[in-house]
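[SOLVED] Need 3D model of a two-part complex

Original post:
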Amino acid sequence: DIQMTQSPSTLSASVGDRVTITCRASQSISSWLAWYQQKPGKAPKLLIYDASNLESGVPSRFSGTGSGTEFTLTISSLQPDDFATYYCQQYNSYSWTFGQGTKVEIK
Amino acid sequence: QVQLVQSGAEVKKPGASVKVSCKASGYSFTSYFMHWVRQAPGQGLEWMGMINPSVGSTTNAQKFQGRVTMIRDTSTSTVYMELSSLRSEDTAMYYCARVRGARPLASFDIWGQGTMVTVSS
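Solution:
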């Protein structure tokens, strides 16, 4: 299986900060990567698909870049609603895998 | 609107089986692959398997081979996930999730609300 490694595991930031989360794949996955946001007690929500495409309805402060094995999720100006856990997911093969998650906390 | 509604919480004893349902509405049920993902308390997301609602074919994670069964009922637009030989480590929230778009290798754009399964003697 393809392993997905996110960094950092926890991130402390303030409202208005620019935040970047990294996801690395154990082998090339082209651009077959998604980012999800999950809040406590809720199902994950799709933010970005195919590495850089913003899902409909998701604020434009979220953006994704990367291809191959290294990917980033950037929040340009952190808002109070953005404090949550973020997961990357690869779908390059018929064995979908997720990163371990990055929790964005209030500083 | 497009939504997936799952069955309610379950409490099972070790060794038992659990069957979770996921009813789809607001879209063409047979046009989108459906996945199951679980999340143990305080842990990350773990992919379990996928079903093609059109023909009923499945692909499961190797970890669950022989223990998980996924079926669909096109008459009610419902998919089911049954996990057998339950152990305490199977205590988790179980989600169904729809694939975004027509091809199977894609992200998940619609999620069910989750079904908590607790395995305890």
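Edit: Chain A has a mean pLDDT of 97.
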